[in-house]
User: Which sequence fits this backbone?
């Protein structure tokens, strides 16, 4: 039941800089040594579809099914036995998934899941029930079931709901999920072609495209009605390099809450090439070191470290239950003075961005740690009301089948002042993690881990040889106190990051500049 | 609103797909009723009770695959989805092997995957079960005075199925579960220990006493844990940790991954890939098994397959398409939900019990590590590498010593499997993938 973020590695997207391909540190030289043939550019074909209309062909506007009066009556039923708060959450998703393998478009999947749930809160207690049918009668039933969590209380009258305007964190001119299918197929094919063109040793490429349009409606007993539409894209590319009996996989991903213009700057073909290059580098990789040593972690997805080591421990449910090791630590120094950590649900294109959370609280930016001092927890309504304070807009759920929990949005270590290259200096023997895999944490002990997909030995202040995959582990507080250097090259990853907690998976962003830690345990084999 | 029965829904979409240009069509529906109660410090924290349903439609058009799913059972929505799926399937690449399976399922006698006692559980029963488990955690050790949660739940599931060749059929399952996440403290540090049991039948479910006690014991065992110096040594896995290790190997056994060079054992059929002590079985017919069912996700009858026989790799997990591509027999391993296309996955996958016991393995280990928990991602089934965070106990001269945490273990999967030198008798079917305790001859342990 421990939280875990998964998915595999890399690319880095800037938080507030123009998008550009960056080859970090010495990787450029290693790549050219590994590659036999250059890769021709594969043009991206823009779409021209009118898919929005097509979506409406199946779906209905949620507000048309659940008008204000319907919402009021369902919320009144939810609080008929008492309770401190109730909400109604309705959702419909239009999803497209395309899989390419073995050079062939294998399958296309359309999804149209929809439903609604009713939640009743009474202090620390939660009742939740949902229906796959968005209809008055079934939601009235759900409200009755959810209300049974409250015992021996008087009915509470909810405030009549009024729709409120949301402040969108950014606007998309032509969201990728609305592109016509042939254009989506073209994106997928361009990644396959680009990865294969890198080198004849790229023996296999799998591309998984998935997008969604997610409509949500949240009506609360406090009288708010929020309606939002959220677009999300993720394209993952896994090339396999084969040399004799050796097989190595690369990983690349592109996406986020993005439009067509974004993909013209960060092209899927570039991402696929980088993934193929990674697989080739790994063919040359030797054993990773075993033991505790200085570790430098590359920008972007490297932020999975802060997601695991700090982010989960500041989530309000663990704080109110006093199971998190950061319980009662607000205002305390918990890390190096160089450490500043932010959770921001309003980053343009961020995988974890939204205008409103899944319990109707507008999104915002929250500084979690400043100069090493813990500033704030991440709170949903329930943990906020129990701890005293306002919700931070972090109440998120996987779908209408789940209740909200305090969750991260886009979480990153803020930029520092060091030149990334300078962070290597003075390290006699250490490890450079260029690209990470997934990780997990035990928030009670603070022990966390994350996998390294692409790593290198650091010897005498320089990156020397590539190393095979290894897990890096540490203890949150010890590790964060040992933060010795923070680069100026902040990136927040938009393309990947799915955080699992309590059986619920939500898309998140993570990020960081290049950072250096005094001591992390590297789980290699060379002693 | 729609009041069509599952059979009417499935036959409607199958027939419409066939009329609209699909050479073959398949419809798969799941319905589940789930109730769960969570308790903390004796008080109810969370109650949920819901019914869910969903349908998935797979079509084959000119040997091309299309798929769609929805939870919205309105006939107009179903019809529109089917039509779109057929049009979109046309964009895909054809593959001769893209067809429904040739086999038809035969009736199977009682698999005992449905228990009336589970279906009859009420919210109050589940609250009582969770409370009792939590109480037992507190009673086990006075260092356990709080929990993250104690929970208990019950689910009744139905699968409905038809395709162009197989008439409508269905089966029902039940699942019940209980678990505790206990927090132990020694005054300065806290450690969490969890134990969850999940079964088809209420009679099989661990007692609240055992659930609470195991969670408390695990939490207390973690107190005072510390890293050890980096070394190489034999490493023993307790049964539950061994099961999680085995689950990490499953992608290497998927035929689709083998075909696309994504398995480190892709070219090892009929060769030794593990110690002779290791036999791995996938048994879709295991009575009361969590992965047991009469037919798989594409209607293929279940069976028992030996995947690794005394160390020798015998076969991979197949779907109808991969079995044709490899020119081999079906294994009944098409795993799916209504939301996904069938992909190769285990039914009940386990390592056959051996002749040793955990106690004997410990007593015959001069110095080594007993792993009681593993965390995170660390198994690379493409390259064959292994590196993972673990917790456990140090073994010195055949005796359990200090608690260990903050270490990793690492090795090469091929060498690890060949180096298994003991397999225990303590297999319990508590998950769809499970194993008895095992011992690896030597791994690198990274610590201080």
Assistant:
């Amino acid at each position: 039941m421990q939280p875990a973020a998964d998915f595999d590695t890399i690319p880095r997207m800037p938080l507030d800089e123009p998008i550009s391909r960056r080859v970090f540190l010495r990787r450029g030289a290693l790549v050219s040594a590994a590659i036999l043939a250059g890769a021709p550019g594969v043009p991206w074909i823009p779409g021209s579809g009118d898919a929005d209309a097509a979506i409406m062909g199946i779906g209905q506007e949620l507000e048309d099914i659940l008008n204000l009066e319907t919402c009021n009556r369902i919320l009144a039923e939810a609080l008929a036995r008492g309770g401190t708060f109730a909400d109604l959450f309705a959702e419909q998703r239009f999803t497209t998934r395309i899989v390419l393998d073995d050079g062939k478009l294998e399958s296309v999947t359309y999804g149209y899941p929809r439903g609604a749930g009713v939640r009743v809160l009474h202090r620390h207690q939660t009742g939740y029930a949902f229906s796959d049918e968005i209809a008055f009668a079934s939601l009235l039933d759900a409200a009755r079931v959810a209300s049974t969590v409250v015992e021996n209380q008087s009915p509470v009258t909810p405030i009549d709901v009024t729709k409120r305007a949301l402040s969108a964190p950014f606007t998309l001119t032509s969201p990728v999920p609305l592109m016509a299918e042939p254009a989506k197929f073209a994106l997928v094919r361009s990644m396959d072609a680009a990865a294969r063109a890198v080198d004849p040793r790229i023996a296999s490429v799998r591309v998984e495209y998935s997008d969604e349009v997610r409509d949500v409606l949240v009506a609360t007993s406090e009288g708010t009605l929020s309606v939002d539409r959220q677009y999300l894209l993720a394209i993952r590319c896994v090339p396999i390099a084969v040399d004799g009996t050796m097989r190595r996989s690369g990983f690349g991903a592109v996406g986020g809450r993005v439009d067509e213009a974004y993909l013209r700057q960060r092209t899927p073909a570039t991402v696929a090439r980088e993934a193929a290059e990674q697989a080739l580098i790994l063919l040359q990789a030797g054993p990773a070191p075993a033991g505790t040593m200085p570790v430098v972690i590359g920008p972007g997805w490297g932020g999975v470290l802060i997601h695991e080591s700090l982010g989960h421990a500041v989530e309000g449910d663990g704080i109110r239950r006093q199971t998190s090791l950061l319980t009662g630590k607000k205002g305390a120094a918990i890390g190096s003075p160089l450490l500043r950590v932010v959770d921001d649900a309003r980053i343009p294109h961020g995988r974890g961005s939204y205008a409103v959370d899944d319990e109707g609280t507008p999104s915002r930016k929250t500084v979690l740690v400043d100069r090493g001092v813990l500033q704030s927890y991440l709170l949903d309504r329930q943990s906020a009301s129990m701890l005293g304070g306002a919700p931070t807009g972090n109440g998120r759920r996987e779908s209408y089948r789940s209740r909200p929990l305090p969750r991260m949005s886009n979480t990153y270590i803020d930029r520092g002042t060091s030149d990334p290259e300078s962070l290597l200096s003075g390290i006699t023997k250490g490890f450079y993690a260029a690209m990470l895999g997934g990780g997990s944490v035990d928030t009670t002990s603070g022990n966390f881990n994350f996998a390294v997909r692409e790593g290198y030995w650091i010897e005498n202040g320089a990156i020397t040889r590539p190393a095979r995959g290894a897990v890096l582990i540490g203890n949150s507080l010890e590790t964060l106190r040992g933060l010795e250097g923070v680069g100026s090259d902040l990136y927040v990853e938009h393309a990947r990051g799915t955080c699992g907690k309590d059986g619920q998976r939500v898309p998140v962003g993570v990020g960081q500049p290049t950072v250096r830690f005094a001591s992390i345990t590297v789980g290699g084999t060379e002693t | 609103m729609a009041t069509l029965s599952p059979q009417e829904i499935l036959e409607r979409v199958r027939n419409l797909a066939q009329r609209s240009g699909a050479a073959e069509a398949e419809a798969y529906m799941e319905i589940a009723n789930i109730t769960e109660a969570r308790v903390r410090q004796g008080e109810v924290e969370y109650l949920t009770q819901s019914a869910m349903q969903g349908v998935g439609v797979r079509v084959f058009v000119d040997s091309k695959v299309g798929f769609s799913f929805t939870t919205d059972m309105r006939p107009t929505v179903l019809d529109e989805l089917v039509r779109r799926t057929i049009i979109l399937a046309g964009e895909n690449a054809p593959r001769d092997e893209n067809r429904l399976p040739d086999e038809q399922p035969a009736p199977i006698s009682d698999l005992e995957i449905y228990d009336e006692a589970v279906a009859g559980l009420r919210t109050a029963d589940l609250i009582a079960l969770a409370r009792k488990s939590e109480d037992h955690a507190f009673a086990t050790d006075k260092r356990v005075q709080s929990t993250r949660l104690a929970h208990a739940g019950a689910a009744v599931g139905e699968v409905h199925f038809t395709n162009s060749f197989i008439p409508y059929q269905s089966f029902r399952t039940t699942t019940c579960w209980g678990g505790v996440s206990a927090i132990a403290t020694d005054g300065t540090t806290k450690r969490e220990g969890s134990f969850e049991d999940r079964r088809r039948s209420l009679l099989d479910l661990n007692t609240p006493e055992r659930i609470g006690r195991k969670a408390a014991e695990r939490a207390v065992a973690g107190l005072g844990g510390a890293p050890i110096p980096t070394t190489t040594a034999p490493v023993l896995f307790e049964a539950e940790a061994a099961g999680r290790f085995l689950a990490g190997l499953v992608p290497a056994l998927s035929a689709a991954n083998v075909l696309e060079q994504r398995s480190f054992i892709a070219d090892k059929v009929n060769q030794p890939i593990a110690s002779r002590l290791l036999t791995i079985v996938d048994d879709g017919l295991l009575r009361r098994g969590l992965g047991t069912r009469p037919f798989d996700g594409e209607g293929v009858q279940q069976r028992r397959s030996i995947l690794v026989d005394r160390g020798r790799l015998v076969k991979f997990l197949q779907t109808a398409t991969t079995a044709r591509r490899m020119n081999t027999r079906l294994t009944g391993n098409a795993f799916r939900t209504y939301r996904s296309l069938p992909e190769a996955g285990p039914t009940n996958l386990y390592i056959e019990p051996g002749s040793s016991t955990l106690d004997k393995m410990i007593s015959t280990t001069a110095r080594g590590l007993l792993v009681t928990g593993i965390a995170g991602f660390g198994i690379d089934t493409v390259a064959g590498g292994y590196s993972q965070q673990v917790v456990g106990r140090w073994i010195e001269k055949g005796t359990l010593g200090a608690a260990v945490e903050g270490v990793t273990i690492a090795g090469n999967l091929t060498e690890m499997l060949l180096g298994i030198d003991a397999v225990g008798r303590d297999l319990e079917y508590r998950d769809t993938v499970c194993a008895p305790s095992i011992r690896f001859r030597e791994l690198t342990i990274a610590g201080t």
